[in-house]
Amino acid sequence: MKAAVFKAPGKPLSVENVNDPKCGENEMILKVEQCGICGTDLHASDGGSMEPETGTIFGHEFSGEIVEIGKNLKTSFKIGDPAVSLPFISCGTCQACMNGNPFFCSTNMQSTGMSPEVQGGYAEYVRIGLPESIKIPNGVSWDFATLVEPLAVGLHGVRVSKFKQGHRALVIGAGPIGLATIQWLRFFGARHIVVAEISEERKVMAEKMGATLVIDGKTPSEELANIYQKETGGSPDIIFECAGIPTVIQNCLEIAAPFSEIVVIGVCDKPDTFMPFLGIIKELTIKFAIAYMKDDFQFTIDMMEQGRINPGQMISQHIGFDSLATTFETLKTSKDQCKVMICPNH
Description:
The protein is α/β, with parallel strands linked by helices.
C-alpha cells in the first residue's frame, strides 16, 4: 500500500509503498477514506519526548470502510461497513477496557500511529480493534466521521470538568481542539464562551463555532481578565487550556478567579513552570484531561447523526499523497489552516 512514513526529526515524511497491515484473528482492517493531520503528529515529527521510531506511519483521526474481519471475531460488522475507531488496540477485557476507556488498558494498549507496531491512517489501510470501533450511521459524511476524534477530545475535556449549564468559560487557543471545545460549550449551554487566540484566521473560526467574544491571545493576563469582567459581568468559572505550549498554565493561574477551575487539554511535551502559590491562595482546581472514552466517540457520532452539531467549518483543505509531505511541513508554522484531511484516493 501507499503510505507517508516518518524517517527522522526535521525530515519530510516519505511517501512510499509499504506492506499492507496484517489482520489479527481478533482485529479488522479499515480501508482509509480520510485521515486528519493532528498537531500531535506535527510535534512528534520534530523530535523530543514524543518522537516515534523510524518507520512510523502517523495518523489517528481516520475513517474508512471495513475490508477484512479477523476469523475469530463474532461481530455485527460486515465487509463494506463504514467505521471509525479510537486510535488504540487494547486487550478489551481489563477493567479500563470494559469501562470503555482503552487508553488506560492495564494489559497491552498500543497507540495507533505512534509506532511501527500499529501503523496509522496516513496510509491506504489501517489495522483496528473491535472493542474500539464504531459503525458510521447513514447521514454522517466522511468529513464529519473523520472529525469525530478531535471533537471527542474537546467533549472529554468538558465532561471531566465541573462545567454546568450557565457557566462562564474561557478557552485559550482556537486550534482544532479549542474549536471542538467551543462547540461543546455552546452545545451544553455555556453563558459566555470567551476565546483567546493569536491567529486572525482562527479568531474568525472561533466566532463561527460559537465564541461569544474573541480576545487577542497576546493580551497580558491582567488586562485579559479585566476585559473578560467588563464584557461578561463576571469571571470565568472554568478556563480550558487548549494551546499546549509552555507558560500558558501560568497565564491561566493569573487570570483565574478564586475557587474556579483550570482544565488542561492541550498537549505540551516540553518542560514548563508555574507559580503554585497563585493556585493555593485562590483555592483553584487544576484538572488534566487526556484523549477520550468510547462513549465520547459514540455521543459525538449520535449528535452528528441527529444534526445537532455541525463541525464542517473546521475543515480547511483536502489533499492527496502528492502534496502530503509539503503540506505537513507547512502546517508546522502556518496558523491559517485548521483541519487538513488526507484522502488516500484523492
